[in-house]
Amino acid sequence: MLVIAMVITFWLSILSGCLKEPETQPEEPPPPASNILDLVIPPDFDFETSKNIEVTIQDFKLKTTGDIKYEMYLYSSVGQSIQAITMGDDGDLTQQSGTLVDILNNLNSTKVTSDPNFTVNLTIPNYYDSLFIVRNDLGHYTTMLIPLTSKHLSVQFENEINMQKSVSKDDPTDMLYGVNSLKEVYSVNPLTGELTMITTMPSNSNGSWACAIDPIEEIFYTVGIASPCNLYAYDLNTETWETKGATHYRGPRLGYNVNDGMLYYSFNQWVLLINPDNGNMISYYEVTGLHELGGGDLVFADNGRMYISCNAGLYKCEFTGGNQIEASRISANNLPNYPNSLTFDQNQELWWASNVSSMGRLFIMDTTTGGWEDRYTLTNNYIHDLATLPLDETQIEETDTDGDGIIDFYDEYPYDGDRAYDTYTPSIYGWGTYAFEDLWPDQGDYDFNDLVINYRFTNVLNSNDDVVETYWDLKIKNVGGSLENGFGIQIDMDKSLIQDVTGFSLTEGIISLDGKGLETNQQKPVIIVFDNAWMNKTTDEIMITITYNNPIPESDIMGYNPFIFIDLERGREVHLADYEPTDLVNSSYLGSADDTSDPSIGRYYKNATSLPWGINIIHDFVYPKEKMAINLGYTKFGDWAQSSGSDYADWYKDQNGYRNNAYLVTN
Length: 667
What we know:
By secondary structure, this protein is mostly beta strands. Helices cover about 5% and strands about 40% of the residues. It is built from 3 helices and 40 strands. The strands form 9 sheets. An 8-stranded mixed β-sheet has the order 17-18-19-20-24-23-22-21, with no helix packed on it. Strands 30, 31, 32, 33, 35, 37 and 40 form a 7-stranded antiparallel β-sheet that branches. A hairpin with a 2-residue loop joins β22 and β23. The longest helix is centred in the N-terminal third of the chain and has 17 residues, at about 1-20. It is elongated. The model is unreliable at about 1-25 and about 160-170 (pLDDT under 50).
């Protein structure tokens, strides 16, 4: 027995030497010191990141009684820097670099009217310094970039449109136009293959790899190969050239979109939208799905579908939202020669061209199957791009399918007589953000990540400019901490105007609704989107739909008052700075603990240093990490707050020196 005990003791000593001491988890380091409570914030600062402006349009007196469509876009010159090595249609490699700015994804408001003088009211982010306005008179486009120098702007359009066309076409067909790096511009009869020299490009252009035609104004556009890659316009009526401005890119893909009056100029995976008036880039897209990036062309079909070609063949494109285009190949990847040129004729047959043994070759391609047929050889003539001038497309067809008084060309809902177009807050693809602290009335850590909600609001208007429906597109971006918080929005309007509300998510049995879907015992309409954020955290998007008894003016919807209520306690409401609570607030919380609310002077939801428990950022918000105060991640937040919003109005943007990503959740 003694021997056995000694053996057991021996092996236990060996095993104990092999066993590691249990590891202790390292303690979380304390958050760095933040001076957020030391900020000297003016007591009346409202922490607003948006502003309301009034824009009055004064147009020239219309010669016709028809409508004109006006679209208003938000503009900021700050963009995305890119660098790329591009292959042109001659096989040359070019280093391209620049800054991509974005306008056309920032559509804010639309107006279709026959009145040459009208006013619109817009809500826009404070940091935007300009509006880009597009005037569309049946495909005749005029653009203006308006500095935001005041909250009341007056915009004057002048009559610069020549509605008379005088191009003589002897053949009863479309005419193809081509350009090459030899500066030659020529026409090709698609019925016979006959080539006619038209003109030569300006001498300092070095020719071109790209061209497009505005079929309404009958303008032939091309971009010079020589730096700074000027945009040139050749008027097919007056037979004169005009230099519009420098694009600073060599292409080689170019197409004109009659649906927005813009030139789409492309290289590698980038598609740039170019203003034909001056050659300036106003927006951009990034294309995914291309098997190769070099060479090719870009074109639009009549139905608005965009096609791109490159060394790897022909692709059809889908605009998937934001600045993204998804391309899918529809041609075989063994085309005998890559299609460096694309154009649709009026019969929607796709022509493509290539250069073979110093000669241009023209082909017809089926955009469904990718099948193709060799048509013509242009002896001793290079071809680097094609465009089409249709025989009879001197004006847009004025069809009004739904009979609402707005033609299909303008109508965003051409088959619905009750709807015509939309307005957006903040913009068509942009997101705003509500971010809240949830320890109120006790002071929080000011990381503003306890409940973070993205929003986009859309009003659907009819042909009389009245709202028929409102959509709230909402996404829960983050739920911090453990409290089960609800979220709602009070609308400053007459609740009797609302017919029905759908789309909310109520799971806790603590909210009472009337037959319309509005919260009961409220003087103003209150919509509770959800009563427990944790139950909706994995939901991709929540879509609230508000319908009205009758169409109403947009001015009847006078403002939104978002709020949370904390940990299933309905009366413990947290609103934005100086926003009044709803009728169901537990008023005993107001002015208690660290809250300094004083209803007698209109002060709500601020602490002793005027910091709020909730902020509205009219932009997508990269929220701070847990217990990291907002001014640690956003280095200009303090300057903005202490200046009452005068300095660094764009404090939340990703610009040099604006962020410290060590304190932000960036993934």
